Amino acid sequence: MDQILIKDLIARGIIGVNESEREKPQEILINIILFTDLKTAGASDNIHDTVNYRNIAKQALAHAESAKRFTVEALAADIAYLCLEHPNVLKVRVRVEKPGAVRFASSVGVEIERSRDG
């Protein structure tokens, strides 16, 4: 299966369970892998035959900045299901990280994989 990569998308949003995390937006790092079939798009060179990664990136960014989720798990699931709304996306892998959330670690986060069949 072919893949479209959206790497190191940086959002600023409210995420976390601690009171201090709920007060002001913090950096959220998002990586998305969209699994699809790119044969037709490769032959036609037509944007309508592929997944428009720019639109998905904009939607993921807007959601991350407005959702105000408590957990990175919930935000990752939101983004995964948002990606699967696009008809050509068969499966998605989403990684959501909070840089600097844990002392002595560059970031902490989760990576999930979801597909149309469950």
Write a structural description.
There is one protein chain. It is built from 3 helices and 4 strands. The chain has helices at residues 39-44, 53-66, 72-84; strands at residues 2-13, 26-36, 91-99, 107-115. Strands 1-2-3-4 form a 4-stranded antiparallel beta sheet, covered by helices on one side. The model has no long low-confidence stretch (mean pLDDT 96).
Give a short summary of the structure:
The chain has 118 residues and is of the alpha+beta class. The chain has three helices and four strands; from the N terminus they run E-E-H-H-H-E-E. A four-stranded antiparallel sheet has the order 1-2-3-4, with helices on one face.
Core attributes:
118 residues, 3 helices, elongated
Structural class: alpha+beta
The global form is elongated
The total of beta strands comes to 4
Low-pLDDT stretches:
none
**Overall average residue pLDDT:** 96
Termini separation (Å)?
A: 17 Å
Helix count equals 3
Q: In percent, how much strand structure appears in the residues?
A: 25-35%
Summarize the main sheet.
4 strands, antiparallel
Radius of gyration using CA atoms only: 15 Å
**Order of helices and strands, N to C?**
EEHHHEE
Strand arrangement, major sheet: 1-2-3-4
Helix content: 25-40%
